[in-house]
Amino acid sequence: MPYSQAQADAACNFFEHILKHTADEWYGKPFLLVPWQEEALSTIFGQLDEAGNRIIEMAYLEVPKKAGKSEMAAGLALFVLLTTNTPGCQVYGAAAATRQALNVFRAACKMVDQSPILSKRLRVLRGTHRIIKRSDPESFYAAVAADGDFGDGVNPAVVIADEIHRWKTRKQLDNWDVLSNGGITRRQTLTIAITTAGVQNESPLAWRLHEKARKIEAGIVSDAKFYGRIYGAAKEDDPADPATWIKANPSLKQNGGFLDIEKIREKFVSHEAEGDLTSFKRYYLNMWDQKESRAIDMVKWDASAGDWHASGLLAKSPGDKVRSLPHTLLARFQGRRCWAGVDLSMTTDLSAVSLVFPCEDDGYDVLVFFWMPEQAVRQRERRDGMPYQRWAEQGFIELSSGDVIDYRDITARLEWASDLFDLEEICFDPWNSRQISVPMTEHGYACVEIRQGVATLSEPSKKLLELVAAGKLHHGGHPVLRWNASCLSTKENNDNLMFTKPERSKSSSRIDGIAATVNALARAIVRTPRQMSIYSTRGILTL
């Protein structure tokens, strides 16, 4: 993609030659960029498309406290306000509450006050928390609180969102949608979120962006319009080791920055004396506070793909009831013994069917199918940051026409599997599944309800992790299932283990394909002999 060194330099030079710091011992000194700041500015403003427009539309920067976030946010607001040529450029500096938003606004005011160049071109209106462009008063930077009421006329060109780990309430999350999507009629929009790590289950917005940045870095998904950088320590790093402090803090002098490592040492000693390093690890090592632990090492997951590739479903041919598989996959699976696990969503999210085939190496081949409503694809792409449309085009997701998943599509897939494979049982989560399982049982299919509790799921969940670690869960590199695996967290109780399902209203993570696979494994690992005559008379078996 095109890169404009001139545009990148313009952003960096604005900070270093126009702006001055506004706090502590750095007050009045030139805003010399730290390497991580220079990289962010160069990437965000230097990447252009063929028409000369910015490619990056969303940036997520996650750094510890004392890294210079607020001052950088203030400088960004002034830069885009001053350099955007489009009339009526609305720039919003947003924070969870008014106090935090005004901290950034006051820093911006001091920057204007210290610069004859900025004072000549910009006018500070402290009473209304705005800075306007003198040549175009309809172009302004306004400080707003995410818990406030936005009036009509909000049409952001640029949004600088500060400390979004504090954006937790429904109103704050709704206002994020207003700000980040409100400038849809503009030719160029930009949203930059800058934050410290939060608490996973309490900071849904920041966690969603954190996970997207992490998955892009890991190569799980791609999005040319998104720039994300996360600076912090890893779970296995020693919080007492100065090397960990240097790794986590990009603004330390050891990293070319301004912060003395003794400041971090003082914080560590203070928290250690209190007997609790939780806050230290979160604020100064940028480690998310979470009770759950990530379940799967993705390097091991990739190594477990097997000697075949889930190359996607073929296009549906006229007269076909469901899409078929590529010939090579049909040849591999046809006639083999398998179990089907089913995980159903209510309306707009993914539903999954996982076919689990025992292998001679004591492992399992896993063939997974996903569904999503066609009308929900674009909306869910914006919400989750996942390339659902591309996955659908590649055959990894099947789209049901309309705005809900048609369960007849899933029934047809299960019937198709029964025709092609030696299908032992269909394993359902009892929740919301009986409209499929009851009719299928009446038609002679062996249906089993898998209770979603630790007593039933602990053993197959442990088995899945064991198979991945041994390289024996052969999934063919299915990209949607890989994403599900990367979202997987566990909760343990004594010797029992369960995978935790993300809250759909708060998280963009999904584990539907893994949940379906676990349901199938719950029966496959038992290797129950066939008892088809019993199923035909007793109905659904419940575990």
Provide tags for this entry.
single chain, alpha/beta, Rossmann fold, Nucleotidyltransferase, domain 5, 2 domains, 8-stranded mixed β-sheet
Description of the molecule:
- The radius of gyration is 27 Å and the shape is elongated.
- Helix 3 crosses helix 4 and helix 17 (454-469) crosses helix 19.
- The chain has two domains: 56-231, P-loop containing nucleotide triphosphate hydrolases (Rossmann fold, 3-Layer(aba) Sandwich); 294-312 and 324-542, Nucleotidyltransferase, domain 5 (2-Layer Sandwich), CATH 3.30.420.240.
- 39% of the residues lie in helices and 18% in strands.
- It has 543 residues and is of the alpha/beta class.
- The protein contains 20 helices and 19 strands.
- It has an eight-stranded mixed β-sheet with strand order 3-4-5-2-6-7-1-8, with helices on both faces. Strands 10, 11, 12, 13, 14, 15, 16 and 19 form an eight-stranded mixed β-sheet that branches. A three-stranded antiparallel β-sheet has the order 9-17-18.
- Strand 11 (351-358) and strand 12 (364-373) form a beta hairpin.
Q: Could you list the spans in which at least 5 consecutive residues all have pLDDT below 50?
A: 528-540
Number of helices: 20
- Helix amount, in percent? 25-40%
Number of domains: 2
Summing up helix and strand content along with how strands pair, one would put the structural category as alpha/beta
Indicate the CATH architecture of the largest domain: 2-Layer Sandwich
User: Any idea of the CATH topology of the largest domain?
Assistant: Nucleotidyltransferase, domain 5
The span between the termini is 54 Å
Percent range for β-strand residues: 15-25%
Mean pLDDT: 88
Strand order of the largest sheet: 3-4-5-2-6-7-1-8
- Major sheet attributes: 8 strands, mixed
Radius of gyration: 27 Å
CATH class call of the largest domain? Alpha Beta
* Dominant shape: elongated
Write down how many β-strands occur, each being a DSSP E stretch of 2 or more residues.
19
